[in-house]
Write a structure and sequence with these properties.
15 helices; 5-stranded parallel β-sheet; 407 residues; 2 domains; Rossmann fold; 34% helix; alpha/beta
Protein backbone atom coordinates (compact mmCIF):
# COMPACT_ATOMS: atom_id res chain seq x y z
CA UNK A 1 0.00 0.00 0.00
CA UNK A 2 1.08 3.58 -0.63
CA UNK A 3 1.87 5.60 2.47
CA UNK A 4 -0.83 8.16 3.32
CA UNK A 5 -0.26 11.77 2.43
CA UNK A 6 0.88 13.89 5.38
CA UNK A 7 -0.52 17.29 6.37
CA UNK A 8 0.81 19.29 9.30
CA UNK A 9 -1.59 21.93 10.64
CA UNK A 10 -0.59 24.84 12.85
CA UNK A 11 -3.38 26.53 14.79
CA UNK A 12 -2.72 29.97 16.24
CA UNK A 13 -4.87 31.93 18.65
CA UNK A 14 -8.00 33.32 17.02
CA UNK A 15 -11.73 32.64 17.12
CA UNK A 16 -11.49 31.16 13.60
CA UNK A 17 -9.71 28.18 15.18
CA UNK A 18 -13.11 26.47 15.39
CA UNK A 19 -13.30 26.40 11.57
CA UNK A 20 -10.10 24.39 11.21
CA UNK A 21 -11.82 21.50 13.03
CA UNK A 22 -13.78 20.79 9.84
CA UNK A 23 -10.54 20.71 7.83
CA UNK A 24 -8.86 18.33 10.26
CA UNK A 25 -11.86 16.00 10.44
CA UNK A 26 -12.33 15.89 6.65
CA UNK A 27 -8.67 15.08 6.02
CA UNK A 28 -8.60 12.33 8.65
CA UNK A 29 -11.75 10.73 7.21
CA UNK A 30 -10.08 10.67 3.78
CA UNK A 31 -7.15 8.71 5.20
CA UNK A 32 -4.72 11.62 5.18
CA UNK A 33 -2.22 11.51 8.06
CA UNK A 34 -2.76 14.69 10.09
CA UNK A 35 -0.57 16.18 12.83
CA UNK A 36 -1.45 19.42 14.59
CA UNK A 37 0.44 22.06 16.55
CA UNK A 38 -1.43 24.45 18.85
CA UNK A 39 0.10 27.65 20.13
CA UNK A 40 -0.51 28.57 23.75
CA UNK A 41 -3.00 31.23 22.61
CA UNK A 42 -4.84 28.74 20.39
CA UNK A 43 -5.65 26.58 23.41
CA UNK A 44 -7.78 29.43 24.78
CA UNK A 45 -10.11 28.87 21.81
CA UNK A 46 -9.93 25.12 21.20
CA UNK A 47 -8.59 22.27 23.29
CA UNK A 48 -5.79 19.87 22.45
CA UNK A 49 -8.22 17.04 23.26
CA UNK A 50 -10.61 18.19 20.52
CA UNK A 51 -7.82 18.41 17.98
CA UNK A 52 -6.41 15.03 19.03
CA UNK A 53 -9.80 13.36 18.66
CA UNK A 54 -10.47 14.83 15.21
CA UNK A 55 -6.97 14.12 13.86
CA UNK A 56 -6.70 10.62 15.38
CA UNK A 57 -3.33 11.64 16.80
CA UNK A 58 -2.14 13.55 19.83
CA UNK A 59 -1.88 17.31 19.36
CA UNK A 60 1.45 19.03 19.95
CA UNK A 61 1.77 22.05 22.25
CA UNK A 62 4.69 24.16 23.45
CA UNK A 63 5.31 21.91 26.45
CA UNK A 64 6.18 19.12 24.00
CA UNK A 65 8.77 21.34 22.32
CA UNK A 66 10.92 21.34 25.43
CA UNK A 67 10.67 17.57 25.94
CA UNK A 68 13.41 14.94 25.80
CA UNK A 69 12.98 13.56 22.26
CA UNK A 70 15.97 11.87 20.64
CA UNK A 71 15.66 14.44 17.83
CA UNK A 72 14.20 17.93 18.21
CA UNK A 73 10.45 17.80 17.72
CA UNK A 74 10.33 20.77 15.33
CA UNK A 75 12.86 19.03 13.07
CA UNK A 76 10.93 15.75 13.11
CA UNK A 77 7.63 17.45 12.30
CA UNK A 78 9.13 19.71 9.65
CA UNK A 79 10.66 16.73 7.84
CA UNK A 80 7.48 14.66 8.21
CA UNK A 81 5.07 17.03 6.48
CA UNK A 82 4.14 16.98 2.79
CA UNK A 83 2.15 20.21 3.23
CA UNK A 84 2.05 22.65 6.15
CA UNK A 85 -1.17 24.61 6.79
CA UNK A 86 -1.44 27.48 9.26
CA UNK A 87 -5.09 28.25 10.02
CA UNK A 88 -5.93 30.64 11.42
CA UNK A 89 -2.81 32.70 10.80
CA UNK A 90 -3.09 35.54 13.31
CA UNK A 91 -1.43 38.96 13.13
CA UNK A 92 1.07 37.85 15.79
CA UNK A 93 2.15 34.62 14.06
CA UNK A 94 2.17 36.31 10.64
CA UNK A 95 4.51 39.04 11.92
CA UNK A 96 6.88 36.53 13.53
CA UNK A 97 7.18 34.50 10.35
CA UNK A 98 7.59 37.54 8.11
CA UNK A 99 10.59 38.57 10.21
CA UNK A 100 11.99 35.06 10.62
CA UNK A 101 11.31 34.97 14.36
CA UNK A 102 10.73 31.66 16.16
CA UNK A 103 9.80 31.58 19.84
CA UNK A 104 7.40 28.61 20.04
CA UNK A 105 6.90 25.14 18.56
CA UNK A 106 4.80 26.35 15.64
CA UNK A 107 7.14 29.07 14.38
CA UNK A 108 10.24 26.92 14.89
CA UNK A 109 8.64 24.09 12.91
CA UNK A 110 7.77 26.42 10.04
CA UNK A 111 11.40 27.51 9.79
CA UNK A 112 12.60 23.90 10.06
CA UNK A 113 10.39 22.70 7.19
CA UNK A 114 10.77 22.96 3.42
CA UNK A 115 7.38 21.67 2.17
CA UNK A 116 4.68 23.92 0.65
CA UNK A 117 3.24 26.30 3.27
CA UNK A 118 -0.45 27.27 3.02
CA UNK A 119 -1.46 30.33 5.04
CA UNK A 120 -5.05 31.23 5.93
CA UNK A 121 -5.10 34.59 7.77
CA UNK A 122 -7.93 35.64 10.08
CA UNK A 123 -8.24 38.80 12.16
CA UNK A 124 -10.26 41.95 12.76
CA UNK A 125 -10.61 44.19 9.70
CA UNK A 126 -8.73 47.13 11.25
CA UNK A 127 -5.90 44.80 12.26
CA UNK A 128 -5.75 43.30 8.78
CA UNK A 129 -5.57 46.72 7.11
CA UNK A 130 -2.76 48.09 9.30
CA UNK A 131 0.28 48.94 7.12
CA UNK A 132 2.72 46.77 9.13
CA UNK A 133 0.41 43.75 8.79
CA UNK A 134 -0.02 44.29 5.06
CA UNK A 135 3.76 44.62 4.70
CA UNK A 136 4.32 41.41 6.66
CA UNK A 137 1.71 39.64 4.54
CA UNK A 138 3.57 40.79 1.42
CA UNK A 139 6.84 39.51 2.89
CA UNK A 140 5.40 36.08 3.68
CA UNK A 141 3.90 35.71 0.20
CA UNK A 142 7.35 36.29 -1.28
CA UNK A 143 8.56 32.97 0.14
CA UNK A 144 8.99 30.56 -2.75
CA UNK A 145 7.14 27.84 -0.82
CA UNK A 146 4.28 30.07 0.36
CA UNK A 147 0.70 29.63 -0.84
CA UNK A 148 -2.33 31.36 0.59
CA UNK A 149 -6.08 31.67 0.83
CA UNK A 150 -6.92 35.30 1.40
CA UNK A 151 -9.33 36.34 4.15
CA UNK A 152 -12.83 37.14 2.95
CA UNK A 153 -15.33 39.87 3.73
CA UNK A 154 -18.29 39.34 6.04
CA UNK A 155 -19.54 39.77 9.59
CA UNK A 156 -16.66 39.15 11.99
CA UNK A 157 -16.85 37.79 15.53
CA UNK A 158 -16.40 41.36 16.81
CA UNK A 159 -19.54 42.34 14.82
CA UNK A 160 -17.45 44.42 12.44
CA UNK A 161 -18.33 43.97 8.76
CA UNK A 162 -15.28 43.83 6.53
CA UNK A 163 -12.38 41.74 5.33
CA UNK A 164 -10.76 39.46 7.88
CA UNK A 165 -12.82 36.27 8.03
CA UNK A 166 -10.79 33.15 7.47
CA UNK A 167 -11.51 31.45 4.16
CA UNK A 168 -14.14 28.71 4.30
CA UNK A 169 -12.96 25.16 5.11
CA UNK A 170 -14.07 23.94 1.66
CA UNK A 171 -11.74 26.42 -0.03
CA UNK A 172 -8.84 25.54 2.28
CA UNK A 173 -9.37 21.80 1.71
CA UNK A 174 -9.36 22.23 -2.06
CA UNK A 175 -6.10 24.15 -1.92
CA UNK A 176 -4.55 21.50 0.35
CA UNK A 177 -5.54 18.75 -2.07
CA UNK A 178 -4.02 20.68 -4.96
CA UNK A 179 -0.74 21.12 -3.07
CA UNK A 180 -0.67 17.41 -2.33
CA UNK A 181 -1.19 16.77 -6.06
CA UNK A 182 1.42 19.21 -7.37
CA UNK A 183 3.95 19.57 -4.56
CA UNK A 184 3.40 23.32 -4.76
CA UNK A 185 4.20 23.86 -8.45
CA UNK A 186 3.20 27.22 -9.94
CA UNK A 187 3.64 26.14 -13.55
CA UNK A 188 0.71 28.28 -14.74
CA UNK A 189 1.99 31.54 -13.25
CA UNK A 190 1.46 34.34 -15.75
CA UNK A 191 -1.23 32.49 -17.70
CA UNK A 192 -4.84 33.59 -17.97
CA UNK A 193 -7.30 30.70 -17.96
CA UNK A 194 -10.97 30.94 -18.96
CA UNK A 195 -13.32 28.17 -17.82
CA UNK A 196 -17.02 27.55 -18.38
CA UNK A 197 -18.94 25.38 -15.92
CA UNK A 198 -22.39 24.06 -15.09
CA UNK A 199 -25.57 23.65 -17.08
CA UNK A 200 -27.56 26.39 -18.77
CA UNK A 201 -31.29 26.90 -18.29
CA UNK A 202 -33.43 27.98 -21.22
CA UNK A 203 -36.66 29.44 -19.78
CA UNK A 204 -40.15 28.43 -20.82
CA UNK A 205 -41.52 30.87 -18.27
CA UNK A 206 -40.15 32.28 -14.98
CA UNK A 207 -40.43 28.90 -13.19
CA UNK A 208 -39.93 26.30 -15.95
CA UNK A 209 -36.93 25.70 -18.15
CA UNK A 210 -35.11 23.27 -20.43
CA UNK A 211 -31.95 22.16 -18.66
CA UNK A 212 -29.69 19.28 -17.76
CA UNK A 213 -28.27 17.71 -14.57
CA UNK A 214 -24.80 19.29 -14.76
CA UNK A 215 -23.69 20.60 -11.35
CA UNK A 216 -20.58 22.48 -12.51
CA UNK A 217 -18.23 20.43 -10.32
CA UNK A 218 -15.81 19.56 -13.12
CA UNK A 219 -15.56 23.14 -14.34
CA UNK A 220 -15.11 24.47 -10.81
CA UNK A 221 -12.38 21.87 -10.21
CA UNK A 222 -10.57 23.04 -13.36
CA UNK A 223 -10.81 26.66 -12.24
CA UNK A 224 -9.48 25.75 -8.79
CA UNK A 225 -6.63 23.63 -10.11
CA UNK A 226 -5.50 26.38 -12.49
CA UNK A 227 -5.75 29.02 -9.75
CA UNK A 228 -3.77 26.87 -7.31
CA UNK A 229 -1.06 26.45 -9.96
CA UNK A 230 -0.64 30.22 -10.22
CA UNK A 231 -2.93 31.18 -13.11
CA UNK A 232 -5.31 34.12 -13.24
CA UNK A 233 -8.68 32.42 -13.68
CA UNK A 234 -12.08 33.60 -14.88
CA UNK A 235 -15.02 31.23 -14.42
CA UNK A 236 -18.21 31.68 -16.45
CA UNK A 237 -20.85 29.49 -14.85
CA UNK A 238 -24.49 28.50 -14.83
CA UNK A 239 -26.36 27.92 -11.56
CA UNK A 240 -24.06 26.49 -8.84
CA UNK A 241 -24.89 25.02 -5.45
CA UNK A 242 -23.65 27.01 -2.45
CA UNK A 243 -21.00 24.43 -1.51
CA UNK A 244 -19.28 24.97 -4.87
CA UNK A 245 -19.38 28.75 -4.56
CA UNK A 246 -17.44 28.43 -1.29
CA UNK A 247 -14.52 26.95 -3.25
CA UNK A 248 -14.02 29.95 -5.53
CA UNK A 249 -11.68 32.10 -3.40
CA UNK A 250 -9.30 34.03 -5.64
CA UNK A 251 -11.25 33.19 -8.82
CA UNK A 252 -13.18 35.80 -10.82
CA UNK A 253 -16.65 34.31 -11.32
CA UNK A 254 -19.44 35.47 -13.63
CA UNK A 255 -22.97 34.03 -13.58
CA UNK A 256 -24.35 33.20 -17.03
CA UNK A 257 -27.57 31.18 -16.59
CA UNK A 258 -28.55 30.85 -20.26
CA UNK A 259 -26.70 29.80 -23.40
CA UNK A 260 -27.00 33.33 -24.77
CA UNK A 261 -25.52 34.86 -21.61
CA UNK A 262 -22.69 32.31 -21.57
CA UNK A 263 -22.02 32.93 -25.28
CA UNK A 264 -21.72 36.69 -24.74
CA UNK A 265 -19.55 36.36 -21.62
CA UNK A 266 -17.11 33.88 -23.16
CA UNK A 267 -16.71 35.89 -26.37
CA UNK A 268 -16.05 38.99 -24.27
CA UNK A 269 -13.38 37.25 -22.17
CA UNK A 270 -11.75 35.24 -24.99
CA UNK A 271 -9.22 37.91 -26.12
CA UNK A 272 -7.61 37.93 -22.64
CA UNK A 273 -7.27 34.14 -22.29
CA UNK A 274 -4.32 31.85 -23.02
CA UNK A 275 -6.32 28.65 -22.52
CA UNK A 276 -10.09 28.10 -22.60
CA UNK A 277 -11.76 25.06 -21.02
CA UNK A 278 -15.34 24.61 -22.23
CA UNK A 279 -16.58 22.37 -19.41
CA UNK A 280 -20.12 23.78 -19.28
CA UNK A 281 -23.06 21.63 -20.40
CA UNK A 282 -24.67 24.19 -22.68
CA UNK A 283 -28.21 23.57 -23.94
CA UNK A 284 -28.60 22.54 -27.59
CA UNK A 285 -32.01 24.15 -28.00
CA UNK A 286 -34.30 26.67 -26.32
CA UNK A 287 -38.03 27.40 -26.48
CA UNK A 288 -38.86 29.58 -29.47
CA UNK A 289 -40.87 31.77 -27.14
CA UNK A 290 -40.45 32.41 -23.42
CA UNK A 291 -43.33 33.75 -21.39
CA UNK A 292 -42.55 36.69 -19.04
CA UNK A 293 -45.09 35.35 -16.52
CA UNK A 294 -45.87 31.89 -15.19
CA UNK A 295 -48.13 29.99 -17.56
CA UNK A 296 -51.12 28.22 -16.06
CA UNK A 297 -50.78 24.46 -16.34
CA UNK A 298 -53.68 24.34 -18.75
CA UNK A 299 -51.91 26.78 -21.08
CA UNK A 300 -48.73 24.73 -21.40
CA UNK A 301 -48.39 23.62 -25.04
CA UNK A 302 -48.64 19.94 -25.91
CA UNK A 303 -45.81 20.50 -28.37
CA UNK A 304 -43.07 22.96 -27.42
CA UNK A 305 -41.56 24.72 -30.46
CA UNK A 306 -37.77 24.82 -30.18
CA UNK A 307 -35.00 26.96 -31.64
CA UNK A 308 -31.23 26.32 -31.75
CA UNK A 309 -28.85 28.18 -29.43
CA UNK A 310 -25.48 29.64 -30.51
CA UNK A 311 -22.66 27.13 -31.05
CA UNK A 312 -20.35 28.66 -28.45
CA UNK A 313 -17.35 26.37 -28.99
CA UNK A 314 -17.39 26.86 -32.77
CA UNK A 315 -17.71 30.63 -32.41
CA UNK A 316 -14.80 30.74 -29.96
CA UNK A 317 -12.70 28.58 -32.31
CA UNK A 318 -13.39 30.97 -35.20
CA UNK A 319 -12.21 33.96 -33.17
CA UNK A 320 -9.28 32.55 -31.19
CA UNK A 321 -5.85 34.01 -31.81
CA UNK A 322 -2.56 32.21 -32.57
CA UNK A 323 -1.19 30.57 -29.43
CA UNK A 324 -4.54 30.27 -27.66
CA UNK A 325 -5.64 26.74 -26.72
CA UNK A 326 -9.34 25.84 -26.83
CA UNK A 327 -10.32 22.64 -25.03
CA UNK A 328 -13.82 21.19 -25.37
CA UNK A 329 -15.66 18.59 -23.32
CA UNK A 330 -17.92 15.77 -24.46
CA UNK A 331 -20.09 13.98 -21.89
CA UNK A 332 -21.15 10.78 -23.65
CA UNK A 333 -22.74 7.38 -23.07
CA UNK A 334 -21.73 4.15 -24.80
CA UNK A 335 -18.58 4.39 -26.94
CA UNK A 336 -17.45 7.89 -26.00
CA UNK A 337 -14.55 8.33 -28.42
CA UNK A 338 -16.13 8.51 -31.94
CA UNK A 339 -18.62 11.30 -31.12
CA UNK A 340 -15.91 13.19 -29.22
CA UNK A 341 -13.54 12.98 -32.19
CA UNK A 342 -16.27 14.21 -34.52
CA UNK A 343 -17.02 17.13 -32.21
CA UNK A 344 -13.30 17.96 -31.92
CA UNK A 345 -12.90 18.42 -35.68
CA UNK A 346 -16.34 19.88 -36.42
CA UNK A 347 -15.88 22.69 -33.89
CA UNK A 348 -12.18 23.34 -34.57
CA UNK A 349 -10.91 22.55 -31.07
CA UNK A 350 -7.30 21.94 -30.06
CA UNK A 351 -8.31 19.01 -27.84
CA UNK A 352 -11.41 17.48 -26.30
CA UNK A 353 -12.03 15.76 -22.98
CA UNK A 354 -14.41 12.82 -23.42
CA UNK A 355 -15.96 11.46 -20.25
CA UNK A 356 -18.62 8.77 -19.71
CA UNK A 357 -21.94 9.57 -18.05
CA UNK A 358 -23.12 5.95 -17.81
CA UNK A 359 -20.38 4.46 -15.65
CA UNK A 360 -20.34 4.30 -11.86
CA UNK A 361 -18.55 7.21 -10.24
CA UNK A 362 -18.48 9.30 -13.43
CA UNK A 363 -20.48 12.04 -15.04
CA UNK A 364 -22.97 14.60 -13.77
CA UNK A 365 -23.16 15.19 -10.03
CA UNK A 366 -20.41 12.77 -9.04
CA UNK A 367 -17.40 13.72 -6.90
CA UNK A 368 -15.19 11.57 -9.16
CA UNK A 369 -14.70 11.29 -12.89
CA UNK A 370 -12.63 9.66 -15.62
CA UNK A 371 -11.85 10.78 -19.15
CA UNK A 372 -9.87 10.38 -22.34
CA UNK A 373 -8.29 13.46 -23.88
CA UNK A 374 -8.01 13.51 -27.68
CA UNK A 375 -5.84 16.15 -29.35
CA UNK A 376 -6.22 17.49 -32.87
CA UNK A 377 -3.57 15.04 -34.14
CA UNK A 378 -5.60 12.09 -32.88
CA UNK A 379 -3.39 11.27 -29.88
CA UNK A 380 -5.32 9.84 -26.94
CA UNK A 381 -4.55 10.28 -23.24
CA UNK A 382 -6.62 8.03 -20.93
CA UNK A 383 -7.16 9.43 -17.42
CA UNK A 384 -8.39 6.90 -14.81
CA UNK A 385 -11.14 7.39 -12.23
CA UNK A 386 -10.19 9.88 -9.52
CA UNK A 387 -11.56 12.95 -7.77
CA UNK A 388 -12.61 15.74 -10.11
CA UNK A 389 -9.91 18.01 -8.67
CA UNK A 390 -7.25 15.35 -9.33
CA UNK A 391 -8.64 14.88 -12.84
CA UNK A 392 -8.48 18.64 -13.39
CA UNK A 393 -4.76 18.64 -12.55
CA UNK A 394 -4.17 15.74 -14.94
CA UNK A 395 -6.07 17.52 -17.71
CA UNK A 396 -3.97 20.65 -17.16
CA UNK A 397 -0.75 18.64 -17.37
CA UNK A 398 -1.81 17.04 -20.67
CA UNK A 399 -2.91 20.37 -22.14
CA UNK A 400 0.38 22.01 -21.08
CA UNK A 401 2.28 19.34 -23.02
CA UNK A 402 0.23 19.69 -26.22
CA UNK A 403 2.05 21.27 -29.16
CA UNK A 404 1.28 24.96 -29.64
CA UNK A 405 -1.79 25.60 -31.80
CA UNK A 406 -1.15 26.43 -35.42
CA UNK A 407 -0.92 30.11 -36.14
Amino acid sequence: MNEPRRVLIGVSGGIAAYKVCHVISALAKEGVAVRCILTQQAQAFISALTISTLSRHGAYVDEDFWGSQARPLHIELGEWADVFLIAPLTANTLSKLALGLADNLLTNTVLASTCPLLAAPAMNTDMWLQPPIQENWRRLRQWSRAHWVNPVAGVLACDRVGTGRMAEPEDILSHLHSLLETGGKRDLAGKRILVSAGGTREPIDPVRFIGNPSTGRMGVALAQAAHHRGATVTLIHGPLETALKLRLGGISAMHAPTAAAMHAALLSELPKADWVFMAAAVADVKPKQSSPYKLPKADLPDVLPLAPVPDIAADLASQKQPGQKLIGFAAQSGDILPPAQEKLHRKGLDAIVANPIDQQGSGFGSETNQATIIDRLGNQYPLPLCSKLSLAHRIIEVVAALPPPAG
